[in-house]
Amino acid sequence: MSEAKKFQPFSAPKGVPDYVPPVSPEFLAVRNTFAHQAHLAGYEHIELPIFEDTGLFARGVGESTDVVSKEMYTFADRGDRSVTLRPEGTAGVMRAVIEHGLDRGQLPVKLTYAGPFFRYERPQAGRYRQLQQVGVEAIGVDDPALDAEVIALADRCFRSIGLSGFRLELTSLGDDTCRPAYREKLQEFLFKLPLDEETRRRADINPLRVLDDKRPEMKEMLVDAPLMLDHLSAESKAHFETVLGMLDDMKVPYTINSRMVRGLDYYNKTTFEFVHDGLGAQSGIGGGGRYDGLMAQLGGQELSGVGFGLGVDRALLALKAEEQQVTAGVRVDVYGVAMGADAKRRMVSLINDLRMAGISADMAYGDRGLKGAMKGADRAGASYALVLGDRELESGQVALKNLAEHTQEDVSLEGIIEKLRALLG
Ligand code: HAM
Question: Does pTM surpass 0.70?
Answer without folding.
Answer: yes
